[in-house]
From TrEMBL:
GO terms for biological process: proteolysis. InterPro entries: Aspartic_peptidase_AS (IPR001969), Clan_AA_Asp_peptidase_C (IPR011969), Peptidase_aspartic_dom_sf (IPR021109), Retropepsin-like_bacterial (IPR034122). Signal peptide: none annotated. Coiled coil: none annotated. This is TIGR02281 family clan AA aspartic protease. Gene3D superfamilies: Acid Proteases (2.40.70.10). SUPFAM superfamilies: Acid proteases. PROSITE patterns: ASP_PROTEASE.
Length: 188
């Protein structure tokens, strides 16, 4: 009986991961299905080919009526767009898995945030491991007509973070954000 419950739990957990896997990388998901169905070997995608897909330039947000913006996902399912941080244009990736907005030291300087090495006193865990970070406040983040002021953020060394992540410290301040049919809606 216990064995059957464990198998049922594993099956239920796995079935919940399928939609998440599809949303995060539809091309890899289709390639996996095609290879499992015995498609032509030339059409099969290798893991190396899937991992080397680079996002194209940021998608221009579709500004809707009111203070709403809709972003289309890129070919990897990521939401990459041009935001303004403290009035400066910055290419950023919307990351619902990031607790706060995260920028690197070069971007911090570009948007007017001055830091000393002693400011990097917080230890943070990233996808690349543990690193040091400085806690800062960004005066204003905007995309289209959507804008939020006084957002908590962390600054990481350029080696630890190559781009900018728009995390939950921005997203939770919105009226809503939702992902549907390959688009992300940001609304105030």
């Amino acid at each position: 009986m216990l064995r059957q419950l464990i198998i049922l739990g594993v099956c239920a957990g796995t079935s919940m991961l399928i939609p998440i896997a599809y949303q995060s990388n539809p091309q890899a998901f289709h390639a996996l299905l095609q290879s499992g169905a015995g498609g032509d070997s030339q059409e099969r995608a290798t893991p190396a080919a899937i991992n080397t897909v680079r996002p194209k330039t940021p998608v221009q947000p579709e500004t809707l009526t009111g203070r709403m913006v809709r972003l289309a996902a890129d070919e990897r399912g990521h939401f990459l767009a041009d935001f303004k941080l403290n009035g400066r244009k910055v290419e950023a990736l919307v990351d619902t898995g990031a607790t706060t907005v995260a920028i690197n030291a070069s971007t911090a300087r570009r948007i007017g945030i001055s830091l000393k090495s002693s400011d990097f006193r917080h230890s943070v865990n990233t996808a690349n491991g543990e690193t040091r970070a400085a806690a800062v406040m960004i005066d204003r983040i905007e995309i289209g007509r959507v804008h939020v002021e006084n957002i908590q953020a962390v600054v990481l060394d350029d080696k630890a973070l190559s781009g900018t992540l728009i995390g939950m410290s921005f997203l939770k301040r919105l009226g809503k954000f939702e992902i549907e049919n390959g688009t992300l809606l940001l609304a105030q």
